[in-house]
Write a structure and sequence with these properties.
This protein is an alpha+beta fold. Helix content is about 25%, strand content about 35%. The strands form eight sheets. Strands 8-7-12-5-4-16-19-18 form an eight-stranded mixed β-sheet. Strands 24, 25, 26, 27, 28, 29 and 30 form a seven-stranded mixed β-sheet that branches. Helix 3 links the parallel strand 24 and strand 25.
């Protein structure tokens, strides 16, 4: 009987070890299978989530084949503070099947997308702007009829998808998208950012309390990446500065720059790059040419549109800084794994060192759960700082991105005896429920202010900029750990210096407008539809306790710039959308739709659709359809683990595997001890 019991123990132990080996080898094979190639031109994937940026996936039996990518073209023309951008991507359907491609791509959150055209073979089809449901119906009908068609839709202000239907075997397709954007002047330099990939958005686990009309489903985004091969891209940025520059560089990419007088041509140093990080380009004019207020105009259909950029002057810091409470919220979710969490922790540690002795502080860390360092914000001391450093050192990135409970925890903290209370939110913003969080911020944050710090190579800049705007703060972007000290110092200079308040603009047509407060070094770019210009443009404000006035004479009000009308429409749409988030006024969507239709812009309620008249696909042929994910951002740990850290059970499976192995070893050890005592 004892022998039978011992044999059973030994059997169970070896069974547990076998289960552990099976789990471990399964995960290992899952992580390495993605690098399989069948030829120089194709890679095979078991699912579309495994592909890198900008590829066209075609389903072939039980796998997805990566079709040959021919080239990519990005052309950006910058004149003053206006940028006209054209993005062109060309693919070839190298399979023997008819195909439909669906791919998501990022654009700047302030982009006014005004044109789309598709070229299939020798045929070019220009897109028409329609109401979203009408455009979708036109596309679906054309697809079913065998016509070639494309549909461009906005899911978020910085997130779009294009669908291309009925691509014939061995056929080449080209999709061209055009948009306008302004180039802000921040901290004495112009900053242009071109998004090149998307951070996966985490959909909150709790049901939104917003009406369904305010929520929109996200397109399928990547969950893991395959072996990433550099892709050819022809990117050219033409800068007509019109004035001498002190510097022109990028913190994210290596460049080659050609100069001709005050005109610059910027290209990537390498023509094969991975689309895994945003391109950030900055240029600084000489001190004598640094702007304080600039005004441009455009005439469109007998209407005058103006664009005003205000960069308030530098002022001295207060000799005695205001006492303040700073609540730091740090994102430790799975999307922050890799270099992002390293940058975030470095930014938080550096920020703590900027606190003054009379300040109070607290730290909230969140992923699927929320942890608060202190029940009540503590004064800066050796003991409280030691607790904070240990808290930060113990942080790791894993789990979901539940932002709302973290904000709720910050708002619930008792107010303290300080003059300013500020929340500094460090995250990549990889969430899908932006509207719900923005509405909470607008309704519940006061009297505190919210400052957002974007971390990583491709943060959700729309959400983070808009959160700071609703929270009456600012947005700071840190793309690399080498920039932490510079950007955090800049942020604290903003926070500690007086703001420009009580800003009033008297437009050249006599209309007056009150503008939101500005922080030190923060620009204001505002557009206006104007009556005939009859007077100078005047800006009045208070810089700290001192009055500040800037006047642009009437003779300097006619600097022409193309695209201001579309930027005005884009800004109007954003203003009305903000009002909709705050009030849920059912009349606002129709107002947004009318502006988008009038100015031919893609929006939440309008899409571009293009349909070829000729029916090309035989009725008996099936169309294979699949989503096309982008490359995961550079430094994201998904690339090395082979499975997502956010909203996944893979870590649980690993834990169970190790627990099973431990139980097996205990069984074997116990059996060995029993045998020893029996002898």
């Amino acid at each position: 009987m004892k022998d039978d019991f011992a044999a059973l123990n030994q059997y169970l132990g070896w069974l547990a070890i076998g289960l552990w080996l099976f789990c471990f080898l399964s995960l290992l094979s899952f992580s390495t299978a993605k690098a399989s190639n069948i030829s120089h031109y194709h890679e095979i994937y078991q699912s579309p989530e495994e592909v890198t940026s900008g590829s066209l996936l075609l389903k072939n039996k039980n796998a997805y084949i990566n079709a040959l990518r021919l080239d990519n073209h990005v052309n950006i023309d910058v004149n003053g503070i206006m940028a006209a951008v054209t993005v062109t991507q060309r693919f070839k359907n190298s399979s023997s099947e008819w195909a439909e491609g669906v791919y998501a791509f990022p654009l700047p959150e302030n982009a006014a997308v005004y044109a789309m055209e598709m070229t299939i073979g020798s045929r070019t089809i220009k897109g028409l702007i329609k109401r979203k449901e009408e455009a979708k119906h036109i596309y679906t009908t054309a697809k079913a009829a065998g016509q070639q068609a494309s549909l461009l839709s906005q899911h978020r202000p910085n997130l779009f998808t294009t669908q291309v239907a009925n691509i014939a075997p061995e056929e080449t397709i080209e999709v061209k998208i055009s948009y306008m954007q302004s180039v802000p002047y921040i901290s004495n330099q112009y900053q242009l950012r071109f998004p090149m990939t998307i951070t996966p958005r985490y959909q909150g686990s709790k049901t939104s309390y917003l009406p369904s009309s305010q929520t929109a489903s996200l397109p399928q985004l990547p969950q893991r990446s395959a072996h990433q091969t550099p892709l050819k891209v022809d990117l050219t940025i033409n800068i007509n500065a019109g004035l001498p520059l002190v510097s022109l560089n990028s913190s994210t990419h290596k460049l080659k720059i050609n100069k001709n007088d005050h005109q610059y041509t910027v290209q990537l140093k390498n023509d094969a790059v991975i689309f895994d990080r945003d391109l950030e380009l900055t240029w600084q004019p000489q001190t004598a040419f640094q702007p304080q207020a600039t005004f441009f105009t455009e005439e469109v259909n007998n209407e005058t549109y103006g664009l005003l950029m205000i960069a308030p002057p530098q002022i001295q810091k207060n000799k005695t800084p205001l006492s303040k409470e700073q609540i730091f919220i740090i994102d430790t979710s799975g999307s922050m794994a890799g270099s992002s969490i390293v940058q975030a922790k470095a930014a938080l540690q550096f920020a703590l060192r900027q606190l003054n002795p009379n300040d109070r502080f607290n730290i909230i860390a969140f992923d699927s759960t929320t942890r608060t360092l202190f029940e009540r914000s503590q004064r800066v001391s050796m003991l409280s700082m030691a607790d904070a450093i240990k808290f930060i050192d113990d942080l790791t990135a894993d789990g979901g991105t539940e932002i709302l409970p973290a904000l709720q925890a910050a708002v619930a903290l008792p107010l303290t005896d300080v003059e300013l209370s500020q929340i500094i939110f460090i995250t990549d913003g990889s969430v899908g429920n932006e509207v719900e969080i923005l509405q909470f911020t607008h309704q519940n944050l006061a009297p505190r202010r919210l400052f957002t710090v974007g971390i990583g190579s491709a943060p959700n800049s729309y959400f983070m900029r808009k959160s700071a705007e609703f929270g009456r703060g600012t947005f700071t972007y840190i793309s690399h750990i080498n920039m932490v000290e510079q950007r955090i110092t800049y942020l604290f200079n903003q926070i500690q210096n007086p703001i420009a308040s009580g800003i009033t603009v008297t437009w050249p047509d006599g209309q007056q407008q009150t503008i939101a407060d500005l922080y030190q070094g923060q620009p204001l770019i505002i557009t206006k539809k104007l009556e005939p210009l009859k007077s100078p443009l005047t800006i009045k404000a208070k810089m700290g306790r001192q009055p500040w006035t800037q006047t642009i004479p009437k003779e300097q009000l006619h600097q022409p710039a193309k695209g201001i009308g579309k930027l005005w429409a884009r800004q109007q749409i954003e203003t009305l959308q903000d009002e909709y988030i705050q009030t849920n006024n059912s009349e606002l969507p129709e107002q947004i739709t009318q502006i988008a239709l009038t100015h031919q812009l893609a929006s939440r309620y309008t899409s571009f659709v293009a349909v070829a008249e000729q029916i090309v696909k035989p009725a008996d042929q099936q169309t294979q359809s699949t989503h096309i994910p982008n490359a995961l951002p550079h430094g994201n740990a998904y690339q090395t683990t082979g499975f997502p850290q956010t909203a996944t059970t893979a870590p649980w499976h690993l834990l169970m595997a190790f627990v099973t192995a431990l139980l097996g070893l205990l069984c074997l050890s116990w059996n060995t001890i029993r045998k020893h005592h029996e002898v």
